[in-house]
Every structure is written in C-alpha cells, then in structure tokens.
Amino acid sequence: MRIARLILPAALALCVVQPATAGTTLIPHRAVYDLALDQATDRSGITGLSGRMVYEFNGSPCDGYTVTFRFVTRIDTSESSRMTDQQTTTFEDGAGKSFSFVTRSYIDQALDKELRGTARRQDSETVVALERPDRQELRLAQTQFPTQHLIELLTKAEDGETFYETTIFDGSENADQIMTTTVIVGREARARAGDPELAAIKPLEGDPFWPVDIAYFDMADGEGEELPVYRISFKLHESGVTRDLTMDYGDFSMTGQLVDLAMFEAPEPCAE
To answer: Which of 159, 179, 226, 266 to pair with 217, CA 20 to 30 A apart?
Structure first.
C-alpha cells in the first residue's frame, strides 16, 4: 500500500525548481488523524479497520524540509487480526534537488522491512541510491519530490487551476518507481458549523481550504495505467495542513479524521 503518500500527508506528497512562490508558505505542524474503514469489497477480506496516523512537518526553503510520519492500523478479517506500523522519516532540500528517506514497517510489532536510501535530481534523470534492504543504484526519469509536489499543488490552487498532471518520487513501496499523478482541485471554501473537524482546526482560525483529489498511477514507458493504483481525497489548507482524508486502495478504502493539530513557528525569510 502506498499509505505514506500526502501526505503524505504529506503530503501527501504534493515540477517546480524554486522552493516556493510568493504567497506559498508551508507552516511547520503536527497533525494527528483517527483512521477508520470506509468500505471494503468481499475480495479484500477485510471486516474491520482502525488506527491512527501522526504526521509532523518541519523546515523551510532555507534549511530544507523534514517529515516524520507514523501510520498504525489494525486490520481485521474473518480469520485473523493484524497490526501494522509504518514509520517514515524523510528530508528534502529546499530547492527540491535531493531527497533522503528511511522507512521501517512492522507487523504485530516485529520488523518486517526496512527501506533506506537517497535520491537526487541530476540532468534529465533521478538517481536513487538504496542502502537497504540491498545496495543498488537506480536511474529513473526526472521528477520531483513530495514537498515540491505539495508546493506545486498549492501554487496551482491559488492560481485557480482545477486539473493538471505531474509526477512524483516519494521513496514508498520499494523506492524503485516514479508515479504519475492526476490532480483535481475544487473551489476554495471555508469550514462550516457542524464540520466534524472544526475543533481540531481551531489553530487555523477559519483559513480557507481547497478540496483535492489525487490519483496515482504506476509510470511505465512514460504512460500511466488506465486505473489508478491508489487514490486520495482531502481538504488542503494554504498552510499545507490536510484533513478530511479518504484513501482508496481499490478493494478497500479508509478515512482519516483530523483530531489534533499543533502549529509551530512559521519559518523566517531566507537570508540574502
């Protein structure tokens, strides 16, 4: 599953060369989400799902961006119950030229997989150097990394664009693929009375948001597959906070409701 995408949060990962445009400022924050099963087909075998996701974003265009992410779920079937725990830390330099990632995945508290590596944009390609599980170097098409993907999305939303296609490398799965993404951006809106996340978004003080839907396709020979391998919809605030998540994996989907939000100090402008 490509659960780490936002995000992922960030972010969702979310192609620009400069770290931000005027008016696009990502605010460091920590967001906590309660996870629940939305729907599941008979083919999935899933009878229940619950969990919690914690996403913390720090950094600035001057110093680069750090994301720490933890995604814990308990998945029930008619025959068993299994707990998965994915822990990811990434760093992306402010210009979006390099990206490092470490992911540890646990099943029922036992380490199942560790993925560690770096990626850098170089000429017309993206060079990925994996350290674990095995040392190898991969040369992929040129793309962008998650924070730049998010900045691009915010810039286009602010400019009123409603649909576009781009690519991303986020170090998920086996860190050996670039994903094509198609992005749909809805009209700017504000939270209304009765919004179940109203209390959690109090630190945003009524800031507007955009409803966003992103579909991810495996990139093969420059073409995306007909059906997405993963899809996520969410509300995106101009600070970079995402909420009201729906993550669709095809055979099942889950929701993520924001239950706690801590906003940290905004980054200072870069020194000349």
So the answer is: 159
